[in-house]
Amino acid sequence: LSLKFGDIDNLKGLVMRFLLTTSYYQLSVQNWFSLHRLQLVYNHSVQATFNATRIYAPSSYSYHCDRVSSLQRYDALLIPSSPNDVSKLWEVTFIDFQIQGFNIQEGHFAYAKDCASFFSPAILMGLVMSLILLLVLAYALHMLIHLKSLDRHYECKASPAYFVQMKDNDMGDEKEPLRNSGNESYELRNQQFCKIYI
To answer: Family, per the entry (predicted)?
Structure first.
């Protein structure tokens, strides 16, 4: 697949060649295409060659990526073909890159397979936070389930409470003497105390 720049002054002789192949994979039961190589040709002479990595899609789809670049800061998908190649002198970056080499219908791209991975850093952080929240929730449920129930049993008995004789005579009806030696003590007839067993 060749990309020519037409009549642009400085780029008249520049051609970008995308070498695409298609192959059948039994596991997916369909054909896939992949971009193997990018060549920069200027005035019919190959100036630079880059090997492409991870640029593939089902042959009935197109491939899309926000950036396809030879620069490391953009997660280089284009790698110079050899360490001593002059390709290292070139920096190539495609923005909003979309390509489809096969099964093109009516001149429009098919549904695009995007280069974004399913486990991007944001998705991984979301999964980790969800796991932490689930662990906290499981611990809270565990603590709630293992709480002991508070069964209250009341046992009320008459209170043998004794009080020193009071000078008020108003409470005379509620008191009766217990013994006559020394200090007189009185028992409250109505007084009860309760023991609570938990």
So the answer is: Belongs to the vacuolar ATPase subunit S1 family.
Average pLDDT over residues 3-12: 76
Tell me which residue has tokens 């397979």: 113
Rank 8-22, 58-72, 154-168 by mean pLDDT and report only the highest: 58-72
Domains in the chain: boundaries: 2-116, 117-155
- Return the structure tokens found at 123: 């998705």
CA 139 to CA 133: how far, in whole Å? Answer: 10
pTM over 0.85: no
